[in-house]
Automatic annotation (TrEMBL):
Organism of this sequence: Physcomitrium patens
Name of the protein this chain belongs to: Uncharacterized protein
C-alpha cells in the first residue's frame, strides 16, 4: 500500500513539474 501511494505521489509530481516547465517555456518564448 505504501508503494502504491508513493508511486501516485511521484506521478502527480512529475506531471506537475512537466506542466510548470511547459508554462515557463511558453513565457520565456512569448
Amino acid at each position: 500500500m505504501d508503494l502504491e501511494i508513493n508511486n501516485h505521489v511521484e506521478s502527480n509530481f512529475s506531471s506537475f513539474k512537466g506542466e510548470a516547465l511547459a508554462i515557463i517555456w511558453a513565457i520565456s518564448h512569448f
